[in-house]
Amino acid sequence: xxxxxxxxxxxxxxxxxxxxxxxxxxxxxxxxxxxxxxxxxxxxxxxxxxxxxxxxxxxxxxxxxxxxxxxxxxxxxxxxxxxxxxxxxxxxxxxxxxxxxxxxxxxxxxxxxxxxxxxxxxxxxxxxxx
Length: 130
What we know:
Layout: E1 5-7, E2 22-25, E3 28-34, H1 49-66, E4 74-81, H2 87-97, E5 104-109, E6 119-126
Parallel strand pairs: 4-5
Antiparallel strand pairs: 1-2, 2-3, 3-6, 4-6
């Protein structure tokens, strides 16, 4: 059985339920889904899907940094949109945070997300030198 290391940072919103911000095991980091919460206020950032996506990806980067990783280490991203009509706008923001060799990705529309947000992203990263 692999050792399981729980990771957290105050640079991203705290877990508000029975989950961890991220877990490292076997050379991989599994990051819980992030939504567009400002970690300083705990409130959803104002604006639409572009503003929320920007905050989501900043939160993802903060959790990755706590694991000693960055966007280039992400091997899989799962993206949840409340409305697939936001797909193109979301992709514009997403592309600014991931470049070069993009991670594998799924993007689906869902009926609802926590706090009625418009977007959520979870990632799996390979730890450097693993």
